[in-house]
Design goal:
The complex is a heterodimer. By secondary structure, chain A is of the alpha+beta class. Helices cover 45% and strands 19% of the residues of chain A. The chains are: A alpha+beta, B mainly alpha. Chain B: Keywords: Sigma factor, Transcription, Transcription regulation.
Chain lengths: 269, 184
């Protein structure tokens, strides 16, 4: 039999790769491929591709300990009376307490109910990644983790505040067991930003990143994780903030809450 | 009520885990949803963000679920979020940051160079083509299922799959990598 009566369509080749053919169809495609080495090469590449993709993404098919909290957070939010879908539901129901405080003060009221705050969230995605990288790079520095140490706290605030064009007040986290190590100038969103580093009694470190918000939009509290490194971040007016650490999440959240409160006060004063 | 309608182990009025059977079903889907979100996203962080957005939307719209095939319904919501988000991102392109730092990827046994090449090749796919490829290859959906989920004709599914595979193959060709390494 000659080739002209025996054709295999593109769709059949895909179905062959995806194992969607019956045994007889499969055999027919196989024998056709033997006579068409160029097509066979392409099919082999698709098969290799599929195997690589499966291998790459397979480890993500897992549960996370926070999954249940993420799902039930919605119910908690409904009970507290927020029906707005723009409300950013994040993993911890407790985050809503911070929101509620902000909303009560009128700080976030417009943001919470603005229809486009979902979009604003997407625009802020770069911030946690930059915060994570800064954390990973600088907290592991033994000799030069910061440019200006805690001994020059006032100078640090003035210097970074000037570069950031923002009345920076360095948060005091001593009630939570963290003392200031110092800070450095760091690029955030392509502009001058500031990183502050804190340390607990055992040398456990966390960082607070501030950068100018190039999108000039606001977001509510959000959380991002990468391995054990977690980041709480939010954008308030012209400044984006990110608190990053490798500490218990509830503790990190307290730190973020505390920073939020102190930055709020410094803006008003 | 048909058997299995309310899922897991809460027969006889006894709730073992969550007070809400719908939430239990979503919980059971989380690994699959996490894998799909990551296969669409540029990084682990983006993947988790997309996953969280999807869960939020699925829960908000639970009344619209028709009671069959929750998995496909949730996947459709994820796909749409991704396509919308992708359009938004295209207007605000982000600096490609540090996918190499993705911890989950490090657990993979694959050759890091090969992995990096795959990641870069995936970035070149359009959102629509990428979603079709992942639904078929990673999630194992049949072409007609994908057509139903994305509300497109099956011919469009085939052409997107074909384009995705050819673009990926083109981007991953060995000689491309060598050309990139060659000093100018």
């Amino acid at each position: 039999m000659t080739d002209e009566f025996e054709t295999v369509s593109d769709a059949e080749l895909h179905a062959f790769v995806d194992d969607l053919l019956s045994q007889s169809e499969r055999a027919r495609v196989e024998s056709w491929l033997e006579k068409h080495p160029e097509k066979a090469d392409e099919v082999h590449r698709w098969q290799a591709q599929a195997a690589a993709l499966k291998q790459y993404f397979a480890p993500y098919a897992r549960s996370d300990e926070n999954d249940r909290a993420l799902i039930s957070a919605r119910r908690t939010a409904e009970r507290t009376g927020s029906r707005s879908s723009a409300f950013r539901l994040r993993r911890l129901a407790a985050v809503f307490l911070i929101f509620a405080a902000g909303a009560a003060a009128g700080v976030y009221a417009s943001d919470l109910f603005a229809p486009d705050s979902r979009l604003a969230a997407a625009a802020s995605e770069a911030l946690p990644r930059q915060a994570e990288s800064a954390f990973l790079i600088y907290t592991s520095e033994v000799r030069h983790p910061v440019e200006v140490g805690a001994g020059e706290r006032d100078h640090l605030a003035t210097w970074l505040g000037k570069r950031l064009d923002y009345a920076l007040r360095i948060p005091d986290l001593s009630p939570l067991g963290f003392s200031l190590v110092g800070g450095r100038l760091i690029p955030v969103n392509g502009k001058a930003g500031a990183m502050l580093m804190y340390e607990d009694g055992t040398g456990g470190r966390l960082t607070v990143l501030l950068g100018r918000n190039t999108e000039n939009r606001e977001t509510s509290f959000r959380i991002a994780s990468r391995g054990d490194v977690e980041t709480f971040y939010w954008i308030d007016g012209e400044i984006g903030y990110a608190v990053t650490g490798e500490v218990r999440r509830d503790l990190l959240q307290k730190v973020a809450d505390e920073c939020y409160r102190q930055f709020e006060n410094s803006e008003r004063s | 009520m048909p058997h299995g309608r309310d899922g897991l182990k809460n027969g006889a009025g006894e709730t073992i885990s969550s007070p809400d059977p719908f939430e239990d079903k979503i919980l059971a889907l989380m690994p699959a949803l996490r894998r799909y979100s990551r296969s669409l996203a540029r990084s682990d962080t983006d993947g988790e963000d997309l996953l969280q957005d999807c869960v939020e939307k699925v829960l908000a719209r639970r009344m619209q679920w028709r009671g069959v095939n929750l998995r496909a319904w949730a996947f459709t919501i994820m796909t749409n979020l991704y396509r919308n988000g992708h359009r938004h991102r295209a207007r605000h392109p982000e600096v490609e940051f540090d996918q190499a730092l993705d911890l989950r990827a490090e657990e993979n046994n694959a050759d890091p160079l090969e992995r990096q090449r795959l990641v870069h090749a995936l970035e070149r796919l359009s959102a629509d083509n990428r979603a079709v490829l992942m639904l078929v290859v990673i999630e194992g959906y049949r072409y007609q299922d994908v057509a139903d989920m994305m509300e497109i004709p099956i011919g469009t599914v085939m052409s997107r799959l074909s384009r995705a595979r050819r673009q990926l193959a083109e981007a991953m060709k060995d000689d491309n990598v060598i050309a990139l390494r060659r000093p100018k």
